[in-house]
Amino acid sequence: MEKHRTEFNKAYISNFAKGLMKKYYYIAIVAVLVIAIVGGYFALYSHKNFNAGNSQASAAFNNSSGPIQTIVIQASRWQYTPDTITVKEGTRVHLIINNTDFGHGIAIPQLGVFGMDSADFVAGQPGTYQFRCPTYCGAGHRDMVGSLVITA
Ligand SMILES: [Cu+2]
After folding, report:
1. Does the predicted model carry a pTM greater than 0.90?
2. Is residue 9 included in any domain, yes or no?
């Protein structure tokens, strides 16, 4: 009788554990899906925002009559070369982004500038602006930063 009960308990516990594992399995799948959907949404949303700001920046470029300066930046995992660019206030900046190993691109959020292969804008208020990689490109993505210096 005692033995029966033990066997029963064992079977009960093992079934319970299996049930629990199944439950966690589903929770894990749901969690992964939620993360993928939310992540995807934010990635698309931020690009959309960037594009909206960027059309203003390039319109300003097209409507301005300042001198045009073309600057080529090399973007690779995980750095920009050069990582500091200096332009004079009022210059029309035509940035060419040379993506050597991945579609990194460039984003200067404070100036509403965003581009994958190129970006046009007018250098406004003098100061130092940080630019970063707008596309997740792996472990060092967050280290892909540089500075745009606008001089008076
Ligand atoms: Cu990146």
Report:
1. no
2. no
Question: Residue 41 Cα, ligand 1 centroid: separation in angstroms?
Answer: 17
Q: In percent, how much of the chain has pLDDT > 70?
A: 88
In the reported structure, the alpha carbon of residue 3 is separated from the centroid of ligand 1 by a whole-number distance in angstroms of 62
Domain count, the chain: 1
**Ligand 1 midpoint to CA 121 (Å):** 21
Quote the ligand 1 centre to 35 CA distance (angstroms): 19
**Which pLDDT tens digit goes with each residue over 65-120?**
989 999 999 999 999 999 999 999 999 999 999 999 999 999 999 999 999 999 99
32 located within any domain: no
Instruction: Answer whether residue 49 is part of any domain.
Output: yes
Burial (0-12, 13-18, 19+ Cβ within 10 Å), 31: exposed
Domain span holding position 89: 42-151
Alpha-carbon distances of 66 from 30, 36, 63, rounded to whole Å: 54, 44, 9
Element of type H or E holding 18? helix 2-63
Asked if residue 37 is part of any domain, the answer here is no
> If you measure from the C-alpha of residue 65 to the centroid of ligand 1, how many angstroms do you get, rounded to a whole number?
33
Q: How far apart are the CA of 102 and the centre of ligand 1, in A? A: 9
